[in-house]
Structure formats: C-alpha cells, structure tokens
Specification:
Blueprint: H1 3-15, E1 19-22, E2 26-29, H2 40-49, H3 54-77, H4 80-95, H5 100-118, H6 121-134, H7 138-141, H8 146-164, H9 168-187
Antiparallel strand pairs: 1-2
Helix pairs in contact: 3-5, 3-6, 3-8, 3-9, 4-5, 4-8, 5-8, 8-9
Length: 198
C-alpha cells in the first residue's frame, strides 16, 4: 500500500473524529465515546465489529424513545384518513405474514405513517437514517419465522387501536412494547440487556 493511500485513509479517519494525528507522537485512536454514531461509515463499522450487539441495542433504544413519543403525538393529531391508512396497513400485513420481504416493506410504511402524522421531522429523520443503515443487515433483521411476524403485527394492531382511540399514553406504551418485544425476539430471546427492559 502506498504512502499516499495510507495518508488519505488517515485523513478520512481524522475528519470523522476516529483518530487524532499528533506531530511527534503519531496517530492515536480516539475514545469511542467521542465518535459520531450518526455518521454512516462510523455506524456501519461499529455494527460490523460489535459481537455483543450493544450498538444495535442502543439503536433500538433510541428508535423506541423517538417512536413512542411520535406515537403519543400521532394519537392526538390523527384524522380519519390516517386511521383508515393505519388500519389498512395492519389488515394487509395480516395477509402478508408469509412473505418476509413484503411484510417488512409494509411494516416500515406503518411506522412512517405514524412518524409523519406526528409532524416531528427531526425525530423521523433520525429514525429513518438509523434504520437505513441496518434494515438489510442480518444482525438487525435477526430471526424471520412467520410466527414472529404474526406476533409483530399484533403489536402493530395494538398501536393502531390506541391511535384510532386517540389515546396518546396508550399509543406511546403500545409502541414502546412493540419495538422492545420485536427486537428482543429478533436478537435471540427475552434475555436481552437491562437497558432494553422496561
């Protein structure tokens, strides 16, 4: 590898805050706590190297907090068109539990309707950015049996019912529970880390 290639690679790492270049002492890796985890390359590399799934756990916790709040707001703001759209998606997903790919597309659409309804563009942007990094990775997708999609859609239906009933606290709790339970099952069972527990 040429010195030019190494120099350019180190420059990119320095721009992303992963290393510090010090004259006389060389290049040192910065503390992971200072890394920008919203950066696409940093997040992808962190996930790829994390055998404990702690980064994905943190991603799910972040998503859960933001989406629970957005579900709360959506329950207050949802009009009849939104309620009909959510019901249609939940009913369609009941029919798609045998098709992992199409179910996942409609699952994301369901969540996005709620995020859009909340009107919180920043929270929606953060969730969509984080998810775009992981939705096609085996470590995030985890287990994909049909029975898990059936259980997942029961969670969607509970969220929909709370929003349709204009129950903000119930919608937030239903979303919190849905995201938590879905991830714990996908990651390999109920024995997840303490920060994911209620």
């Amino acid at each position: 590898m040429s010195r030019t290639v190494v120099r350019e690679a180190v420059k990119i790492l320095q721009e992303k805050g992963l290393v510090q270049v010090r004259q006389g002492t060389g290049t040192i890796v910065t503390a992971p706590t200072t890394w920008n985890m919203l950066d696409e390359l940093v997040l992808a590399a962190s996930i790829a190297e994390d055998e404990t799934l702690a980064i994905l756990d943190d991603l799910v916790v972040t998503r859960r907090l933001l989406e629970s709040d957005m579900a709360n707001v959506a329950a207050r703001l949802a009009d009849q068109d939104t309620v009909r759209q959510l019901r249609s998606l939940v009913d369609l997903m009941d029919d798609l539990v045998g098709d992992n790919v199409r179910y996942a597309e409609h699952d994301r659409a369901f969540h996005d309707v709620i995020m859009q309804t909340s009107g919180n563009r920043i929270a929606r942007g953060v969730v969509k950015s984080l998810e775009s990094q992981v939705i096609h990775t085996a470590r995030y997708v985890g287990r994909t049996e049909r029975t898990l999609r059936v259980a997942s859609n029961r969670g969607h239906r509970r969220v929909y019912e709370r929003i349709a009933g204009h129950d903000p606290e119930g919608a937030a709790e239903a979303m919190f529970t849905h995201i938590t339970d879905s991830w714990l099952v996908r990651r390999g069972g109920p024995g997840g880390p303490a920060r994911l527990q209620r």
